[in-house]
Amino acid sequence: MNIPILIIWLGVVVVLFFVLPIIFMARKARWIETRGEHIVAQVTSVQHDKKRTSTGATHHFYTITATWTHPATGQTYTFWKYFFDEDPDKVISTLVPVIIDPLNPRRYEIQV
Question: Of 5, 8, 43, 72, which has the maximum CB count within 10 A?
């Protein structure tokens, strides 16, 4: 195989698997922030995990889970946010702001 063609294919793979997902995530976050509905959800759990790497470094992983009940339908939605080496400083029963897509509350952004 020709080297320039191989370099072009590697560039296409990098764009498809690394650049496009980042662009789509940024567009989703921007869409939610500009058109979303602001609600307040209650934190139901905060999980903390530690992992040690092969080099001996310790990394901390946090997961916040919050719930909100839609006042019109009575349906309860659960929201998650993950943190890597950053303490979210939240406790159970505190309130967190969330921005949701009013047509599909499963599309959301927790504002912590």
Answer: 43
φ, ψ dihedrals at 8, nearest 5°: -65, -45
Strand partners, 37: 100
pLDDT-derived band of residue 10, with 50, 70 and 90 as boundaries? confident
Question: Distance of CA 28 to CAs 34, 45, 91, Å?
Answer: 10, 26, 28
Concatenating the DSSP letter of every residue in 28-87 gives HHHHHHHHPEEEEEEEEEEEEEEEE-TTS-EEEEEEEEEEEE-TTT--EEEEEEEEES--
- Closest CA relative to residue 67, chosen from 81, 77, 57, 59: 77
pLDDT at 1: 59
Question: pLDDT above 90 covers what percent of the chain?
Answer: 38
Going from N- to C-terminal start, the domains of the chain cover 1-35, 37-112
pLDDT of residue 2: 78
Whole-model pTM: value is 0.69
